[in-house]
């Protein structure tokens, strides 16, 4: 079998992250990040094996950054690309899986932009620019929301008037689907179960954080909702607050919606609670030095995380394991320890030696004897996107072969 290559693109409003992945090798052939786009200081850092380089993006546009990729791909790819996979944050209710990008898909992504005004327009720019540079190759969209389209109505509906759902699409969607899907599948492999099977609670803890209840490869409930603000305490996002907070701040402090929105998304979470940083590494170090704000921020983060996991447990018929992933989930023994302490009711307990982060941070089990499985699994969203692209190509190839037969 030839080792097919997929270029995975994740476009933000001021950034462009990419990875060139082969089917067989777990390490990307080439990967990189263009940052500070939209300014005169645009810069692209890339690496391929031991080679690392930096390229200035003089005009700071997504178009120029994308154009820089073409010679790099030509240099490092041994064969033509099989597909370009695009990470898209919000697919609304239109998408339950990977979709080959055509005019209809582009329109649907535009239609979902009101639900993700910061993300979808930037990702549409990425699609347009990539389609200009990489012509005649299938471009495939992978949606963060798609994995959660299997949630039942009792999990995705808010207790709001029905017309807000039917006419204005107000419902819970969930995000980080690519990561929750990837780690739950890896968990079944790690535990020697049939691939994709099992009843899992997953905690994706990065700058954004969410939990998910996954049964046999299907999301049954998740902590994020209409937007990625709902649910857990995050780096700078508040997570759940009383919905009346908005009117309280407007009436008593005279704040307008933009100010409230900004405070909840950019000034809250670990940063707001600690008064110090949104970065868990900084907070763990400051807590060890006796910083009260850092200590409180970590305690609230872990308690609210445990509460979310306990709540999501009701979606599952049993628990085969709890999975930690994301920058914090993979790298912070303290967060895992403090969180699991609140989950003793489920019989969950950690083995301290296994919990200590080993070099290379491999996927592993960290539970104490007699506890249900507790797993640390490094996430790999680019790998998951590449695999979904190839699976879609295989599926469409089989379909057209059947039609011809
Ligand atoms: P991500 O968005 O998945 O890259 O995760 C970013 C978060 O992971 C930041 O809050 C980092 O502080 C956190 N992180 C990375 N390494 C560590 C570590 N060794 N200990 C604690 N937190 C970490």
From TrEMBL:
Cofactor: how bound: Mg(2+). Can also accept Mn(2+).
Catalytic activity line of the entry: acetate + ATP = acetyl phosphate + ADP
Named cofactor requirement(s): Mg(2+); Mn(2+)
Catalytic residues (positions): 144 (proton donor/acceptor)
Residue sites binding substrate per the record: 87
UniProt subcellular location: Cytoplasm
Keywords in alphabetical order: ATP-binding, Cytoplasm, Kinase, Magnesium, Metal-binding, Nucleotide-binding, Transferase
Site (Transition state stabilizer): 176, 237
A molecular function (GO) term: acetate kinase activity
Binding residue positions for Mg(2+): 10, 381
Membership in a protein family: Belongs to the acetokinase family.
Subunit structure: Homodimer.
Name of the protein described by the UniProt record: Acetate kinase
